[in-house]
Amino acid sequence: MEVYEIRVGAPSEVLRQFLQGMADRMTVSFHKYGPIEQAYPQDVDAIASLEKRLERYRETGNIEWLMDIANFAMIEFMLPRHPEAHYRPTDSKESPGRMRTDGRWAGQAHNLDVEVK
């Protein structure tokens, strides 16, 4: 077993239980299905799999689905299916912001309303 050390600048914003749950589920999947490189992206669509689990979360409220969603996002990051997949750091000006519970979009500074383009 390998131990990963993760530096966390804001400990209140990262949950060790969630990250461990992700890792545990990836280990189980490895033993059930084999290495991800054997299936992704050629045979399994990580984004479609992610979307199905998001649907299940919305239906049931079971937060366990969120660990699976995060894992499928990680798999797409590692082995992208998107034909134009790339990594380019973006700043807050490009972020769509966060959706407030009242349906309005919020910017980064104290959840102020912002116009979304």
Question: Describe it for me?
Answer:
Helix 1 crosses helix 3. This protein has a domain at 13-82. A two-stranded antiparallel sheet has the order 1-2. The chain has helices at 16-33, 46-60, 64-78, and strands at 98-99, 105-106. The protein contains three helices and two strands. The model has no long low-confidence stretch (mean pLDDT 91). A hairpin with a 5-residue loop joins strand 1 and strand 2. It is mainly alpha-helical and 117 residues long.
What is the fold's blueprint, element by element?
Layout: H1 16-33, H2 46-60, H3 64-78, E1 98-99, E2 105-106
Antiparallel strand pairs: 1-2
Radius of gyration from the CA trace?
17 Å
Note the overall shape. globular
Q: How many H/I helices?
A: 3
Helix content: 40-55%
Order of strands across the widest beta sheet? Answer: 1-2
Q: What is the mean pLDDT?
A: 91
Largest beta-sheet details: 2 strands, antiparallel
| Helix/strand order | HHHEE
Which percent band covers the strand fraction? Answer: under 5%
Low-pLDDT windows of residues: none
Structural class: mainly alpha
The end-to-end distance, rounded to whole angstroms, is 46 Å
Q: What's the count of strands?
A: 2
Key traits:
117 residues, mainly alpha, two-stranded antiparallel sheet, 2 strands
